[in-house]
């Protein structure tokens, strides 16, 4: 992995008492940014934490010394150094005078795109997500070079703050043959995006920091014209983009839908639910959790639907190792509350996927769910399976296993009527109960339902009586009622 940082160019604009300690610092190559605030000690930030560089306090003279060596600041209080990737941001007081500087080191790291190189050849639009400073801009810069040089595509960069291609009229060599369009004012970025399509016939548009509603609309317009998009947005997870009303249209948007009484009962959900509005502008989402670790969502529309439905889904974690190789691991999602849509979503926890399990899904549930794929070979159709971990102790570590021999015939098979299925799943998982949830009432050994719903449904009462199925009723779907009912089912 080759790194080009032009660090000396940045250090040359600093006062000597700030520059000298950095020249001899053992972690100089890992420097993230330099902080200079009026009346405070200069500070350097590294991956392992901040350090003071001197006991001398920063004065106005020191700030003026730096400001004179860099171009004027734009309306977003950012500037740079020509022919480099460094970014200098200012903090101003109420009078408009600069009282602080943040000097961020810009690096071109060749090889970072190897984590997602295969996705670039698919030709789908890619959205990079991550918190500030995690390496989104560095990655998108390397993606730009790969698309332009190695894949020989016509690439145009919409460079709002000159972070991707560097400051000055001549772009940095790190972007390869890609062309760069600068944005005069940040609030006009959406206009430049449309201008690039109309005037320069790009095959790929690269956008850094999509943040406003107009930019989102422009991105959707570009995607509808058949141009590949590569963009970044702030947000650690795909769920955070769904929650963001401004950015949610990038992944299809969400809308409230009101179900009829019968449909709500059939689904076991509330009458008002959230669903995806339209096809997303980006077909692939990459969550950057660390500089060398990311989570891949190759079909954004499917993942958004699963999140809004509260279903289990599998994730793909990729790790870039020091030797340049990429490790790919499967993750199954864990249950967590998804407050935005009053339902549920599942967050990641690592498991290892068995290579000897047949990959087929179950109806009415996530076809990507690893738990469902495990039991599809057992011919238990239309059944969602949650079992005590003791029963399947070494399931994921065993190379070959006769799964049918592991099923205990005495495990209760529960049919749920009129209760939110996600609530039942959450209790079963959290309490580690050995219970099977089935969609087929004829396969059930027990029924759990709201009392008022059972009184109104004579068909369920007739089936339960004829097949000797015990009906357990609760007044409402509170967690306490559900817990008591499930424990009663187990001891009966």
UniProtKB/TrEMBL annotation:
GO terms for molecular function: ATP binding. It comes from Chondria tumulosa. It holds the Pfam family Spore_III_AA. Keywords: ATP-binding, Chloroplast, Nucleotide-binding, Plastid. Residues 122-278 form the AAA+ ATPase domain. This is AAA+ ATPase domain-containing protein. The gene is ycf45. The keyword ATP-binding applies.
């Amino acid at each position: 992995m080759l790194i080009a940082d032009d660090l000396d160019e940045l250090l040359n604009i600093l006062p000597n008492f700030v520059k000298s300690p950095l020249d001899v610092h053992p972690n100089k190559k890992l420097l993230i940014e330099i902080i200079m605030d009026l009346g405070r000690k200069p500070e350097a930030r590294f991956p392992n934490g901040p350090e003071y560089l001197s006991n001398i306090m920063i004065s106005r003279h020191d700030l003026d010394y730096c400001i004179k060596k860099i171009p004027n600041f734009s309306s977003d209080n950012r500037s740079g150094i020509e022919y480099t990737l460094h970014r200098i941001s200012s903090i101003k007081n109420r009078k408009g005078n600069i009282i602080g500087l943040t000097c961020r080191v810009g690096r071109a790291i060749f090889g970072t795109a190897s984590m997602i190189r295969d996705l670039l050849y698919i030709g789908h639009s890619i959205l990079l997500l991550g918190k500030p400073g995690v390496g989104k801009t560095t990655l998108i810069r390397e993606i730009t070079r790969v698309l332009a040089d190695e894949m020989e595509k016509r690439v145009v960069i919409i460079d709002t703050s000159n972070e991707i291609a560097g400051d000055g009229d001549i772009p940095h060599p790190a972007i390869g043959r890609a062309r760069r369009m600068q944005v005069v004012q940040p609030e006009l970025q959406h206009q430049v995006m449309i201008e690039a399509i109309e005037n320069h016939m790009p095959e790929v548009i690269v956008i850094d920091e999509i943040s406003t509603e107009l930019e989102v609309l422009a991105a959707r317009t570009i995607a509808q014209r058949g141009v590949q998009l590569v963009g970044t947005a702030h947000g650690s997870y795909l769920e955070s983009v769904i929650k963001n009303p401004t950015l949610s249209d990038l992944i299809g948007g969400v809308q409230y839908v009101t179900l009829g009484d019968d449909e709500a009962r059939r689904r076991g959900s509330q009458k008002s639910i959230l669903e995806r509005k339209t096809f997303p502008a980006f077909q692939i989402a990459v969550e950057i959790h660390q500089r060398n670790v990311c989570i891949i969502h190759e079909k954004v529309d499917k993942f958004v639907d699963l999140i809004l439905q509260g279903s289990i889904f599998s994730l793909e974690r990729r790790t870039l190792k020091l030797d340049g190789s990429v490790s790919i691991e499967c993750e199954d999602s864990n249950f967590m509350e998804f407050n935005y849509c009053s339902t549920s979503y599942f967050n990641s926890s690592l498991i290892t996927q068995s290579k000897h399990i047949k990959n087929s899904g179950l109806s009415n549930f996530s076809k990507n769910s690893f738990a469902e794929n495990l039991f599809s070979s057992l011919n238990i159709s239309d059944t969602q399976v949650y079992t005590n971990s003791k029963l399947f102790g070494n399931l994921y570590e065993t190379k070959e296993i006769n799964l049918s021999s592991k099923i205990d015939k005495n495990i209760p098979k529960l049919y749920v009527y009129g209760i939110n299925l996600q609530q039942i799943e959450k209790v079963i998982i959290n309490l580690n109960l050995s219970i099977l949830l089935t969609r087929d009432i004829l396969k059930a050994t027990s029924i759990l339902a709201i009392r008022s719903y059972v009184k109104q449904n004579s068909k369920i009462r007739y089936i339960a009586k004829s097949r000797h199925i015990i009906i357990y009723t609760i007044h409402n779907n509170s967690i306490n009622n559900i817990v008591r009912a499930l424990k009663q089912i187990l001891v009966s």
